[in-house]
Amino acid sequence: MNTVRTADEENVGAQKVAVVTGAGSGIGRAVAVELLAAGWSVTLAGRRVETLEETAAQAPAGGASALPVRADVSRPEDVAALFDAVRDRFGRLDLLFNNAGTFGPGGVPVEELPYEAWRHVVDTNLNGAFLCAQAAYRQMKEQRPQGGRIINNGSISAHTPRPHSVAYTATKHALTGLTKSLSLDGRPYGIAVGQIDIGNAATDMTAGMQTGALQANGETAPEPVMDVADVARTVRHMAELPLEANVQFATVMATAMPYVGRG
Predict the structure, then answer these.
(1) 114 has which bridge partners?
(2) Are 31 and 97 within 8 A, CB to CB?
(3) 3-state SS class at 228
(4) Cα distance between residue 129 and residue 22, in whole Å
């Protein structure tokens, strides 16, 4: 007897499909390139198409598919269009790496932080992560076979702050709550949700740490960094686990950075 299969069912066994936000630079670019090299089809989301295309150009020849999509994750209409593009191009979604984020103005004391700056960080780091997770969750719940994985980029600041980082730290602490709630609510639908907390990966955003970063005692001191490729490999490991297994929280950091104990 002939059986009619849906588009989602036809996609089973094909390349896995991922969305990486903030894919135009730094950690997002490194993770996207790592997934592409492993054969994933990756939708690259970010605010600047030209940097997304630069990331796509690093995909290995043959097999892997990179789809650049301009999207500001703080805008609900952009997020809706992003996930519509994923559905139209690939038919399903296996992974969201919720990575887009901003430090906001650095080194500004809390009493001097403009509300507009606070709001920008919250809109990007927390509201953007929620909007993308919600859209991914809906698609993963509705698709057949059901399920998928969401990995949130938490940061060491999800645990402990740096001086003058109130907006960034508050949003990263909030991401931990988002991760836990999504993980619990996703269980009935085969949606696994975890968080990676990253410390001092060498990117353009952290370039100043090697020359001097403000410490809790008021001094400025250089800090060690690690290769961003080590972060990318960790995300790939989390992403490629079967959905019956989940890395709930992972911390990957420069070994000697000031975080554990007194530093």
Answers:
(1) none
(2) yes
(3) helix
(4) 11
Those residues whose C-beta lies under 8 Å from the C-beta of residue 217, and which sit 6 or more positions away, are none
For 221, phi and psi rounded to 5 degrees? -145, 145
User: Which pair of tokens denotes residue 221?
Assistant: 């001191």
Flag whether pLDDT at 62 surpasses 70: no
What SS3 state is found at 194? Answer: strand
Q: How far apart are CA 137 and CA 215, in angstroms?
A: 39
* 12-31 tens-digit pLDDT: 446 899 999 999 999 999 99
pLDDT at 12: 46
Cα distances from 180 to residues 122, 147, 185, in angstroms, run: 19, 17, 9
Q: What pTM did the predictor assign?
A: 0.90
Taking CB atoms within 8 Å and a gap of at least 24, the contacts of 30-34 are 30/203, 30/228, 30/229, 30/231, 30/232, 31/97, 31/99, 31/231, 31/232, 31/235, 31/236, 32/66, 33/58, 33/59, 33/232, 34/229, 34/232, 34/233, 34/235, 34/236
Contacts of 222 (CB under 8 A, 6+ apart): 209, 210, 211, 212, 213
Encoded tokens for 27? 């950690």
- In whole angstroms, give the CA distance from residue 122 to residue 120: 6
Count of beta carbons in the 10 Å neighbourhood of residue 251: 17
**Tens-place pLDDT, residues 74-85:** 999 999 999 999
Going edge to edge, which strands form the sheet with 191-199?
Answer: 66-70, 41-46, 17-21, 95-98, 148-153, 191-199, 249-253
Chain centroid to CA 17: 15
> Which residues are catalytic, by number?
168
